[in-house]
Amino acid sequence: MRILLVEDSNIVVRLLRHMLTQLHDCTVDVAPNLAEARELLEQNTYFAAVTDLNLPDAPNGESVELVLGHGTPCIVLTGSLDAKQRKKLLHMGIVDYVYKENRFSYEYVVKLIGTLERNRNTKVLIADDSLVSRRFVRNLLELHLFEVLEAEDGLKALEVLQRVPGIRLLIADYNMPGIDGFELILRVREKYAREDMAIIGLSNDTDETLTARFIKNGANDFLQKPFVHEEFHCRVSNTLESLEMIRKLWEQANLDYLTGVHTRRYFFDKLNPSLQTFVKQGTCLSIAMMDIDFFKRVNDTHGHDIGDEVLKEFARRMHEAFGQHFTLARLGGEEFVVAMKGLDKQKAQSLMEGFRANVEAIPFQFGELSLMLTVSIGVAELGNETLDSLMKRADMALYEAKSQGRNQTRVAP
């Protein structure tokens, strides 16, 4: 990432360069005047530019026009700004303006650069039947480098969400034909939890209860139209920061700290509520419990650091083989489990045999150390029973696989 800093104050340059390079993997080029800024912009492509509004050879914001003319996102530094200048800068399409007041001002600049970098990989869907409103919101989002999608009503929004994976923020207008904003949010929340997607409601309706109704229906925030640029960007940024925090808390609670696969608790919490439904509907479900053979020997011979690497590599192979279709978890130590909805025990055994053979055939490579490892697997198919009972039967099949020589798959009767 390459950043251009157009600033004639050596103190500000030193401070910002230090803070940027400390917190981001970036290169900072400095131009103390307009002429050098022009030369650098002609020679390089920049992720973003931070420029002083008033330079000795550019006292009227010419540096901002120069940066924007090269299609580079621009953050403006200024000692003062009146209402007319502010309106002009926002109309020109800057990312934001920051007053030169104290260290916290420059921390905001550094944080803003990080936000722009995050936004490049963040998909946002706008659902609004007004083309003018959609384009206005789209332009604001694209100034902050979001990947933006549009839908002209609630039904089209649901189609986009079904078709496009990884959308992190939905901005939904209240007044839409067919499915309005409330109904859209309710349907979205049936599929997407708060740690998966954030929602901001919009409306130009003057009903003072809208904010509470939107949030009660599952929105994270609400904005009354018309809104100013800064409020919109702050609300979007705060909402996505909250989403990221919620996601991190969820990961800490549900993902194994070492391997990144789900925890035992997540596995039981996910499957237990669905088990009786599977039985009533006649849906096949098979469980495979697996144990890395002679794992203690790895720790004793090569140390626990290598043991940890083996567990991470084994989990990676599991995720590659099953992660897109099935639920997998680490039960503890070197023991893992996979729940295979839709597979009977014969199909599950065949799938597990392929995985077992793959583990046996491909060495675990860590630098110059090459380890040939195997895995024992026990499979059980769901009957009219509890999850605990199903797990015990799979565990018994695993015990049989280990007692009969390891490196094999056994199926519970």
TrEMBL record:
PROSITE patterns registered for this protein in UniProt: GGDEF, RESPONSE_REGULATORY
4-aspartylphosphate PTM sites in chain numbering: D52, D173
Keyword Phosphoprotein attached: yes
SMART domains for the chain: GGDEF (SM00267), REC (SM00448)
Enzyme type, top EC level: transferase
Enzyme nomenclature, EC number: 2.7.7.65
Phosphoprotein found in the keyword field: yes
Keywords on record: Phosphoprotein
Family matches, as InterPro entries: CheY-like_superfamily, Diguanylate_Cyclase, GGDEF_dom, Nucleotide_cyclase, Rev_trsase/Diguanyl_cyclase, Sig_transdc_resp-reg_receiver
Residue intervals of the Response regulatory domain: 2-115, 123-240
Domain GGDEF, residue spans: 283-413
Chemical reaction(s) catalysed: 2 GTP = 3',3'-c-di-GMP + 2 diphosphate
Xref: PANTHER family: DIGUANYLATE CYCLASE DGCM-RELATED, REGULATORY COMPONENTS OF SENSORY TRANSDUCTION SYSTEM
Protein name: diguanylate cyclase
